[in-house]
Amino acid sequence: MSLERFIDKAISSWMNQDGPEMDIVLSSRVRLARNLEHILFPTLATNDESKDVVQLFAGQFSQQHFSNIGELELLDMNELQPIEKRVLVEKHLISPHLAEDSPFGACLLSENEELSIMINEEDHIRIQCLYPGFQLEEALKTANELDDWIETQVDYAFDEKRGYLTSCPTNVGTGLRASVMMHLPALILTQQMSRIIPAINQLGLVVRGTYGEGSEALGNIFQISNQITLGKTEEDIVGDLKSVVGQLISQERSARDALVKTSNIQLEDRVYRSYGILANSRIIESKEAAKCLSDVRLGIDLGYISDLSSNILNELMILTQPGFLQLYAGGALRPSERDVRRATLIRERLKLEKKKTNGMEVDES
């Protein structure tokens, strides 16, 4: 399979769409945690009860069309290969916990992969909606519509005082986790991020790495999300997050302007050195690739590079993860083999972009 066909098949369609503030905010996500009434939560449920939950959603919602999202397809975790599950994690469609630790886990996934419903993760269901750019309110609206649709056919575990009941006390109340993925290279280069993170934490928000709790901020990509779900409305939670993200956007833009004014030639040199590494390396580890991709994306946003799409960071940060590399290779790869395959894929992807930009015919062989 050619790389172009692999990308078309592998990358979620929403990732190639434009969204507000996409030079800094890569994506917005809303997740709602819900449990069914009169059934033990997944952490305590018997095998039969867990199977019943999967069968319920398979019967009621699989192959059903929702709004403009399209048909929902049920993916049983027990029927997927380890590489397939890893790819779903790398695309942020399911959690590592569902992929690795849920013996009766499943996922309902929409055609465009904007919407996924994790089944028997930490809670019976976790509704997730992903949008490109800074679109928290739009993501919340879609998630709530799906939540209402599901609630017409099932009864949720709900308490009048506490709200929606969840396995983890930190999710009780609205059950809402709202988050954005942000590319903040200038705040890192100007050494401001170390003081910004504690300030954000004091506001009831949390800053994590690319894949959530316990992960690194590869490629200067940070996930900003709420910590408090109880005592606030969904609109308040999203509003507070929007306000902080808006300030971060402003600070990142100011830091980029300052770098251009004070260190323009050094910044341009950094961008093109990173581009040279990506375009010519035969072996590259994931951390170095992420760092170089971040530099190149910054160069695109600042106008140093004009013949590459800004979506290339979103794409390659996912395509160069271990699961995708092995999926493209058609089998398991040792870490050293992944480093070679990663370098090859990046070179091919950059050549493909150049051909598209220059209007040249792409070889499909």
Q: Number of DSSP helices?
A: 12
- Through-space gap between termini: 8 Å
The gyration radius over C-alpha positions equals: 21 Å
How confident overall, as mean pLDDT?
Answer: 90
Mind describing the biggest β-sheet?
Answer: 9 strands, antiparallel
Strand content: 15-25%
State the helicity in percent bands: 40-55%
What is the β-strand count?
A: 11
Q: Can you list the strand order of the major beta sheet?
A: 2-3-4-5-6-1-9-11-10
Report on the structure:
With 365 residues, this protein is of the alpha+beta class. The chain has a domain at 259-357. Helices cover 47% and strands 16% of the residues. It has a nine-stranded antiparallel beta sheet with strand order 2-3-4-5-6-1-9-11-10, with helices on one face. The chain has a two-stranded antiparallel sheet with strand order 7-8. Residues 361-365 have low confidence and may be disordered. It catalyses: L-arginyl-[protein] + ATP = N(omega)-phospho-L-arginyl-[protein] + ADP + H(+).
Secondary-structure map with pairings?
Blueprint: H1 3-10, E1 25-34, H2 47-60, E2 65-66, E3 70-76, H3 82-90, H4 96-101, E4 106-110, E5 115-119, E6 125-132, H5 136-151, E7 158-159, E8 163-164, E9 176-183, H6 185-189, H7 193-202, E10 205-208, E11 221-226, H8 234-280, H9 286-301, H10 312-319, H11 322-329, H12 335-357
Helix pairs in contact: 3-11, 8-9, 9-10, 11-12
GO biological process, one term: phosphocreatine biosynthetic process
GO molecular function, one term: creatine kinase activity
Keywords: Allosteric enzyme, ATP-binding, Kinase, Nucleotide-binding, Transferase
